[in-house]
């Protein structure tokens, strides 16, 4: 019963989410979780594709994997910084996910001013909680 | 270096051979010389005696001839009657028969009545006739040697005067004299008074002139030396001297003439004529060295007027000596050659095993611990070889052990490194599909239209996945290994608190857990929490491995290194009476994920992480285990100076994950 109420509360804000990961199962999982909450989800397998989508569509949130072949998450973060994108937001907030949280990675994330981070693997609730925290704290 | 030893050995041998050779040559030469000389001298002495006997024989012969003649009544009668003519012819006959050079009869006043010489002699003083003088003075017969002056000789026979006269030849080592010639003669002769009743009617005299006489000396030589020759020369010579000049000799000048007129050396002259003693020594005669003997000749008046001598060529003896010395030298040279040979052989024999040892040690220094050292000698070198071999085998043993240890260590660190990489890789790869499994199992659980059975199944899937997630997280923690923060820590307190944490566990299990801390303060620089984790892990493992009723004993202590007193090690040991670790498992226990516990009870990361932590403190963990009896885990931590900052090293290692 409680879960139903929570879902309704979340439904109030339908967010446009861009998920970037090279692994289809991760994309699929994110899409399933986020769509179940009523968010609009666009999945892309790499950084270049993400840039293309960002040019064309406005997004409220980006969920980005760090370790990807060729262009990684840091590349993407670097590329979108300070750029103007269509829609209300200059630069959508970013939730970083990684299956390999080393000190080095965490340090670089701090430098990139990314404060929201979720280690893989995660349960649906963990992902949604992380997103809620992100929007609450800003 | 090798050749020096060789030359030393050869040199020593050579030195001994040379010393022995030289000493024996010297002593041999001296001994031989002395023996030969003594021999020669005694022989010479005998020879001189013989010569004197012969001389005396000649004198006696002359005396006998006169005596026999004087006994003839007819001859006596002729003297009494002074029948000059018949006397002269009789004298000539007697002289011819007895070989006298001069013979005559003097009146009682000394004036010559008759003589065998030419009939018109120059007038001469009656005192010039020594034999007659002697007889007249003493009234008795006389026989012996006498010096006859030129006038007397001339009066007797001018031929005799000529025969006696000789030039004095300047001779090396002789006394210096003004005299250029010797006109006097020396004779052996006799005088005999002729009596008629008791009245002296005359004196019969006669004799042989020794000057220039070859028969006398040659007779002596042939009698004494029996024609003994050496290198074409007679070995022995006989000489009669008048004063110091040779008047009859068979010493020859280089030109082949007899060395008449040459003189004896001053030393001999002074000794023999001056002191009247026998001289016997080596002496330089005319032109050669002889072994000589000289004896004075005393005339009928008792004056030393000449010398009789015999000599043996020294060359003969010198040659013998030379021959012996050269044989000795040959022996010495042969000895030296043998010494060189033997020295070289011995040096080779000695040096051969040493050379092999040297090359063997060279090989050892180049890393070959099983070099060929050749056959083992039976002497001290053999002991050296055996010691060397023993040393080699212990070196080999140590090398083997080192290799094994370093191999194990290398393997260990490689294992850990690769395990770390593997863990990281696996974690990363597994996390994505795990995300999927977690997502979809949970999404399915959210559905309300599923029955309880399905819900239970899904819950099982979700739980199992959560477990996988936990394992992967552990893996990642292991591969990441956070940095250490070492600080001065009371090791006894650290271990004590770890023991306290496990104590309840042990009580529940019925295991007797005890702690025996080291006496006094035991302070080391360690990362408190990491090291406590390690100790805790090991104590818990020990308790887990021990059945109820068993015991686990924890000790701390300080161990001093055998080599340097400054090297101290803190040791923390945990001994259990548990099941022990099989030999097969012993080298696997530090591998990540190795565990003998039931599934879900341990990740198998504890000991590998512990080992890594201890190694990053510069220490090590050792295990001693007897299956069925128990194990002892010992953590050894080097006690370092506070100046060394441990965190530098661990920091750099930490980021490698």
What is the structure about, briefly put?
The complex is a heterodimer of chains A (138) and B (657). Chain A is α/β, with parallel strands linked by helices and 138 residues long.
Strand order of the largest sheet of chain B: 2-1-7-6-3
Low-confidence region ranges of chain A? 7-11
User: Helix proportion of residues of chain A, in percent?
Assistant: 40-55%
Main beta sheet strand tally, sense and closure of chain B:
5 strands, antiparallel
User: Which oligomeric state applies?
Assistant: heterodimer
Helix residue percentage of chain B:
40-55%
Beta percentage of chain B is 15-25%
Structural class by secondary-structure content of chain A:
alpha/beta
Strand order of the largest sheet of chain A: 2-1-3-4-5
Mean pLDDT rating of chain A:
82
Major sheet details of chain A: 5 strands, parallel
Secondary structure tally, helices of chain B: 16
Q: What is the structural class of chain B?
A: alpha+beta
Question: Could you describe the 3D structure shown?
Answer:
The complex is a heterodimer of chains A (138) and B (657). Chain A is globular, with a radius of gyration of 14 Å. Chain A contains 6 helices and 5 strands. The longest helix of chain A has 14 residues, at 124-137. In chain A, strands 2-1-3-4-5 form a 5-stranded parallel sheet, with helices on both faces. Chain A is 46% helix and 17% strand. In chain A, helix 3 runs parallel beside helix 4. Chain A has helices spanning 2-11, 24-36, 47-56, 73-80, 103-111, 124-137, and strands at 16-20, 40-44, 61-65, 94-98, 117-119. Chain A is of the alpha/beta class and 138 residues long. Chain B is 53% helix and 21% strand. Chain B is built from 16 helices and 21 strands. A 5-stranded antiparallel sheet of chain B has the order 2-1-7-6-3, with helices on both faces. In chain B, strands 11-10-14-13-12 form a 5-stranded antiparallel sheet. A 5-stranded mixed sheet of chain B has the order 16-18-19-21-20. Chain B is rod-shaped and about 210 Å long. The model of chain B is unreliable at 642-657 (pLDDT under 50). Chains A and B meet through helix 2 of A and helix 10 and helix 11 of B.
């Amino acid at each position: 019963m409680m879960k139903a109420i929570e879902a309704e509360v979340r439904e109030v804000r339908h967010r446009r989410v861009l998920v970037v990961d090279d692994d289809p199962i991760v994309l699929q999982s994110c899409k399933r979780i986020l769509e179940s909450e009523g968010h609009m989800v666009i999945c892309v397998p790499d950084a270049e594709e993400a840039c293309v989508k960002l040019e064309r569509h406005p997004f409220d949130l980006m969920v980005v994997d760090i370790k990807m072949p060729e262009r990684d998450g840091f590349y993407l973060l670097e590329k979108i910084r300070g750029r103007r994108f269509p829609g209300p937001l200059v630069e959508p907030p970013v939730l970083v996910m990684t299956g390999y949280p080393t000190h080095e990675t965490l340090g670089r994330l701090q430098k990139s001013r990314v404060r929201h981070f979720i280690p893989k693997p995660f349960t649906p609730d963990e992902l949604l909680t992380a997103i809620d925290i992100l929007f609450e704290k800003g | 270096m090798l050749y020096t030893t060789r030359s030393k050995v050869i040199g020593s041998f050579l030195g001994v051979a040379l010393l022995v050779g030289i000493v024996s040559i010297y002593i041999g030469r001296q001994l031989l010389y002395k023996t030969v000389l003594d021999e020669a001298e005694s022989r010479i002495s005998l020879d001189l005696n013989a010569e004197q006997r012969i001389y005396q024989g000649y004198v006696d012969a002359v005396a006998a001839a006169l005596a026999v003649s004087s006994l003839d009544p007819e001859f006596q009668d002729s003297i009494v009657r002074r029948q000059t003519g018949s006397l002269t012819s009789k004298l000539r006959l007697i002289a011819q028969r007895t070989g006298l050079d001069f013979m005559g009869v003097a009146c009682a006043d000394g004036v010559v009545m008759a003589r065998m010489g030419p009939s018109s002699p120059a007038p001469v003083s009656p005192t010039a006739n020594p034999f007659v003088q002697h007889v007249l003075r003493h009234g008795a017969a006389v026989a012996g040697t006498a010096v006859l002056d030129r006038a007397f000789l001339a009066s007797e026979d001018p031929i005799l005067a000529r025969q006696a006269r000789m030039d004095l030849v300047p001779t090396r080592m002789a006394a210096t004299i003004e005299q250029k010639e010797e006109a006097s003669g020396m004779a052996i002769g006799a005088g005999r008074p002729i009596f008629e009743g008791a009245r002296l009617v005359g004196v019969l005299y006669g004799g042989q002139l020794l000057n220039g006489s070859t028969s006398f000396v040659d007779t002596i030589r042939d009698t004494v030396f029996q024609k003994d020759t050496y290198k074409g020369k007679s070995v022995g010579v006989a000489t009669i001297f008048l004063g110091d000049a040779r008047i009859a000799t068979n010493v020859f000048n280089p030109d082949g003439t007899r060395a008449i007129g040459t003189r004896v050396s001053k030393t001999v002259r002074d000794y023999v004529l001056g002191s009247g003693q026998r001289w016997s020594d080596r002496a330089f005669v005319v032109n050669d060295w002889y072994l000589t003997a000289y004896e004075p000749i005393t005339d009928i008046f008792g004056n030393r007027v000449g010398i009789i001598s015999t000599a043996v060529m020294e060359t003969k003896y010198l040659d013998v000596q030379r021959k012996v010395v050269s044989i000795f030298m040959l022996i010495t040279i042969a000895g030296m050659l043998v010494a060189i040979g033997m020295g070289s052989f011995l040096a080779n024999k000695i040096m051969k095993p040493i050379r092999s040892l040297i090359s063997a040690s060279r090989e050892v220094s180049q890393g070959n611990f099983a070099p060929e050292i050749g056959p083992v000698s039976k002497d001290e070198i053999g002991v050296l070889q055996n010691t060397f071999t023993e040393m080699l085998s212990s070196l080999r043993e140590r090398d083997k052990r080192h290799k094994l240890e370093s191999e194990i260590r290398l393997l260990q660190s490689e294992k850990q490194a690769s395990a770390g990489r593997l863990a990281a890789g696996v974690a990363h790869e597994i996390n994505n599909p795990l995300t999927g499994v977690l997502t979809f199992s949970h999404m399915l659980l959210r559905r309300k239209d599923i029955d309880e059975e399905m819900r239970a199944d899904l819950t099982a899937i979700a739980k199992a996945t959560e477990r996988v997630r936990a394992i992967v997280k552990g893996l990642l923690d292991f591969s990441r290994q956070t940095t250490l923060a070492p600080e001065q820590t009371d090791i006894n307190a650290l271990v004590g608190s770890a023991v306290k944490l496990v104590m309840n566990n042990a009580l529940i299990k019925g295991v007797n857990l005890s702690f025996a801390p080291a006496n006094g303060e035991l302070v080391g620089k360690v990362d408190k929490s990491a090291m406590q984790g390690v100790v805790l892990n090991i104590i818990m493992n020990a308790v887990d491995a021990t059945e109820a009723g068993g015991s686990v004993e924890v000790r701390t202590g300080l161990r001093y290194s055998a080599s340097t007193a400054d090297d101290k090690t803190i040791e923390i040991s945990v001994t259990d009476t548990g099941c022990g670790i099989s030999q097969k498992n012993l080298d696997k226990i530090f591998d990540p994920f190795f565990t003998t516990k039931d599934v879900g009870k341990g990740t198998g990361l504890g000991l590998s992480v512990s080992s890594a932590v201890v190694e990053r403190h510069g220490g090590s963990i050792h295990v001693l285990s007897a299956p069925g009896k128990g194990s002892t885990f010992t953590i050894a931590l080097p006690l370092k100076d506070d100046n060394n900052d441990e965190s530098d090293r661990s920091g750099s290692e930490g980021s490698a994950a």
